[in-house]
Amino acid sequence: MGDLRYADAGVDIDAGNRAIDLIRKAVGSTHTPSVLGGIGAFSGLFELDVSRWKRPVLVSSTDSVGTKVKVAIATNRHRGIGIDLVNHCVNDILCCGAQPLFFLDYYATGKLVPEQLAELVDGVAAACRDTGCALVGGETAEMPGVYALADYDIAGFIVGAVERDGIVDGSRVEAGDVLLAMPSSGLHTNGYSLVRHIVLTRELDWNAALPGTDAPLADLLLEPHRSYLHAINDLRQSVDVRAMAHITGGGLIENVPRVLPAGLSAVIDRSTWQVPALFSAIERAGGVMQEEMWRTFNMGVGMVIAVPRQQAGAVTSAAGIPVWRIGEVVESTGGERVRLQ
């Protein structure tokens, strides 16, 4: 009696302290003069630079990377998951024109492995530095009994800002506007439950290439989610961006209508790009219906932008990312919001 320790219940306080020591440098590398205080406080403090803004509106979003973490766990490769987490959130607030200010993460696991957490946070910090976003805090939760010992989940929380008169909300989109596209870097963070089901039922090897692809399956699936921040900022220097749709779960079919005013639809021409080989390989390996592919995956398109027709012709790239004309906005007929042709 009297010898029971928290570690006997599966929670290791010493491991938690070691994890904080391992991530301290990575977190600090994202801090800007706007960050007040350092790691270890009960909250993160961020001073808004009022000289930068006239009438700022704060924009927030939260997301996870879904079951992509299961691929990372199966292959013991975690850094890219941290990048995914930040870039997904950055792209979401970017759709209304917001610039990222600060970020927080939540990591929960059955058994804390400090080195694994450090690898994840290194990815989070790298993406934060690339997008000028300060990592101001987070939470590490060791919860045996809720998560299996080898499992973890991670979620991100972002706050950005946009000028009140600069909000991009799709309200100015009109029939005749052109839809431009930017390519994805792979599956991004959607469709992994279906892919994992195919891998399990077809007994596929993570380290082997699917027919038609040129790299191991794990390499392609763990390719980090692309950030469009720099490309969109570049594009907006010369083009009137009227709406932006981040192509996540639901693909083009579900996400493009979210930024179109009532009464308008999108016509998307699938012949304007070649669907990357990974998507076709998944379709063949799993015997997935084509319609289901287009409702589940981004199919090679990560961002769709609506611009005036007269401005669309000269755009071929932005910040090194290819841009192409994928379709147009038309008056709705019969309630259809997206037509793939």
UniProtKB/TrEMBL annotation:
Domain named PurM-like N-terminal is located at 57-162
As its record notes, the protein acts as a catalyst of:
2-formamido-N(1)-(5-O-phospho-beta-D-ribosyl)acetamidine + ATP = 5-amino-1-(5-phospho-beta-D-ribosyl)imidazole + ADP + phosphate + H(+)
Q: In which pathway does it act?
A: Purine metabolism; IMP biosynthesis via de novo pathway; 5-amino-1-(5-phospho-D-ribosyl)imidazole from N(2)-formyl-N(1)-(5-phospho-D-ribosyl)glycinamide: step 2/2
Q: Name one GO molecular function term.
A: ATP binding
Q: What is its EC number?
A: 6.3.3.1
CDD domains associated with the record: PurM (cd02196)
Q: Which InterPro entries match?
A: PurM-like_C_dom, PurM-like_C_sf, PurM-like_N, PurM-like_N_sf, PurM_cligase
Which keywords appear in this protein's UniProt record, sorted alphabetically? ATP-binding, Cytoplasm, Ligase, Nucleotide-binding, Purine biosynthesis
- Its main subcellular localisation, reduced to a broad class, is cytoplasm
Give any single GO term for biological process.
adenine biosynthetic process
Q: Does the keyword Cytoplasm apply?
A: yes
Any one GO CC term of the record: cytosol
Q: Where is the PurM-like C-terminal domain?
A: 174-335
Q: Where in the cell is it found?
A: Cytoplasm
Q: Does the keyword Cell inner membrane apply?
A: no
Q: What family classification does the UniProt entry report for this protein?
A: Belongs to the AIR synthase family.
Which NCBIfam families does this one have?
purM (TIGR00878)
Q: What is this protein called?
A: Phosphoribosylformylglycinamidine cyclo-ligase
